[in-house]
Design brief:
It is a single chain. The chain is mainly beta and 411 residues long. It has a domain of 253 residues. The chain contains three helices and 20 strands. The protein has a 16-stranded antiparallel β-barrel with strand order 3-4-5-6-7-8-9-10-11-12-13-16-17-18-19-20. A two-stranded antiparallel ribbon has the order 14-15. A hairpin with a 2-residue loop joins strand 12 and strand 13. The longest helix has 22 residues. The radius of gyration is 37 Å and the shape is globular.
Length: 411
Amino acid sequence: MTHSLRSAVTLSLTLAASSALAQTTPAPDTAATRPVEAAPAAPAAPVAAPPTVAAEFGRGVTFRTADERFSLNIRGRIQARFTLSEQPVSPQTEFQIRRMRLVFQGNFLGPSLTYNVQLAFSNLDTESDLRLPLRDAYFSYAGLRDLNVRAGQMKVPFGRQRVVSSSALQFADRSLAVGEFNLDRDVGVVLFSRDLFGLGKRLTYQLGVFGGDGRNRLSETFGMLYAARVQVQPFGEFDDLVEADVQRLATPRLAIGAAVAFNHNSRRARSTFGDTFQQGFDYTQLAADLQFKWAGLSLQAEWLYRRADVDAHQTGMNAMGPVFEYARSGHGYYLQAGYLFTRHAELSARWGEVFAFEGSPTLHRARELGGALSYYFQRHDFKLQADYFYLTGEDFSAGRHQMRLQAQVYF
């Protein structure tokens, strides 16, 4: 083999070895030589459960989020009434929508925070000098056992029958004594507990501070209303805010309540409602009541008291002499009983009186004696009621007759 041939063979073998070595030796592990891997897929976002909607007669329509942190319940109520009453000249007949209400209530940010708004649209549901539909507008925190709070416009915690909803009465309306001496709605703050000391809801209390001018009013003078109510239910919890034993309770239930209120510098004739005065009165008010239910039988009684610091204020002079504004100081009571003969039919009776204290000429003696027949198609949510009253003043023989027929649907 010649020299040139050997050189060519040597070069060929060297090139072949270098190529084989390049194929068997791995490349250095660098970012440039590593293969690109696909990024892991992001986890799918959880699908929120849709809100629920439920509708049931007597419970309204309820919208609720799946986690139950928010809810809205809408209810409506209609009371249609026919009245036949004896008047000095001739009998009077009247058809009217006594009450037409819309209620919006529910919870927000959890079950402990609740709200309630009630609007009223009938003529007698508004005040003659202030035709505003707002009756209730408040929110509550009830996350604690012994100390909870409610703020806004609401019923003042005082007498029993006034606190009971007008939808849950045994008669077409409340007693004369309650109509005169109750404390109506007002704007303020209430501390309360439905189970004070954890005694199985046998002891409750409410302490409130209010503006003292009544619902839908803007105060122009200094003065506040202070109210406190306590209640004992010695035999255990029951629904004492419903008249009539529609549940026909198998065991006796009793509620005993007492309340006190002081309205400083009130310019309303009846403390929180009625005519508006030029000058203010300091009203001290007391109440005591009880309710008993068992096996279709219901008994209820209430006493109310109101006394002003002075009998009258002079507001001017006219041709007849001094002009006065008179306080309405007095007291009153009623006794009420009913028996549910079947699941639907109830017979009730009521006796009540109103007394005026000396120095209150604008408040007159009044008495009522009456009975009612109620048919509960679906408890108080759908019912028909007929009642009769003999209404009189000081002379019991000089009274007048009144009959009412009322139908209610609370859907």
